């Protein structure tokens, strides 16, 4: 392919609170737009040509959603990649990007490789940051999580938009535990509907608060054609944790670099001022969690 282009797969992370989501939007700062601007400045792609968006993202995220790991694809000149390799590409790109977004791994992929065809995507949601979360014992919480595991029609757990199908499969759903306390959950699936994880989080908060029963949540799954609105949790506590593909091995590095992240505990729920102060601290912890993971992954 001398003289032509090669396709690169690269892994990246970014803060969710400083971008207007991942996809390009006119006049707004987005992840895809930032990458394409940096690639243009470096001469890897033609500037001003956004036809089809030359940088393809594996997973799309909303504003507010932090990302430990996502994957993107870009076609750059074969001679450029041969001359700099992974370390040169990371250095060049990260020098162009701001500190709230980082590329931490890259490799050459097959020319027709599509990052959208992931075999799994994993998210983490920190439920204790939600005002409606009242806590749960591990055994009961696992019973709630099991409601969603497997293949279901998640029509009642999504933002309403046009999609070919609302059937999705949850491969695993397990509690996120710190010091024997349930603080959230980790969910893994092949693909997710828009707002699906945040609506599952809202249902779990409702179960902990007692405003929903397990039967009510099960009914929302079993009756997809009847509207059951169980709420929508905020984006602040959601992290896209990992994306896995068969054709590339970037996720292997991500699994080897998972760190321990001691997190603070919320105060008494009856002290609203203390809760507000803790929420601001916890939001910073979400950001520090991502930054520390990125540092470990890029080293």
Structure overview:
The protein has helices at residues 31-41, 78-96, 138-146, 196-209, 214-222, 250-256, 272-298; strands at residues 5-14, 56-57, 66-77, 101-109, 120-125, 150-153, 167-178, 181-189, 238-244. 32% of the residues lie in helices and 24% in strands. It is of the alpha+beta class and 299 residues long. Strands 1, 2, 3, 4, 5, 6, 7, 8 and 9 form a nine-stranded mixed β-sheet that branches. Among the domains are: 5-109, Pseudouridine synthase I, catalytic domain, N-terminal subdomain (Alpha-Beta Plaits, 2-Layer Sandwich), CATH 3.30.70; 131-233, Pseudouridine synthase I, catalytic domain, C-terminal subdomain (Alpha-Beta Plaits, 2-Layer Sandwich), CATH 3.30.70.
CATH superfamily caption of the domain at 5-109: Pseudouridine synthase I, catalytic domain, N-terminal subdomain
Q: Report the span from N to C terminus.
A: 31 Å
- Biggest sheet, open or closed, and with what strands and sense? 9 strands, mixed
The CATH architecture of the domain at 5-109 is: 2-Layer Sandwich
The first-level CATH class of the domain at 5-109 is given as Alpha Beta
Helix-strand category: alpha+beta
Rg, please? 20 Å
Taken in chain order, the helices and strands follow as EHEEHEEHEEEHHEHH
CATH topology of the domain at 5-109: Alpha-Beta Plaits
Helix content: 25-40%
Strand content: 15-25%
Helical stretch count? 7
Q: Which regions have little confidence, pLDDT < 50, spanning 5+ residues?
A: none
- What general outline do the C-alpha atoms trace? globular
Output mean pLDDT: 93
Number of strands: 9
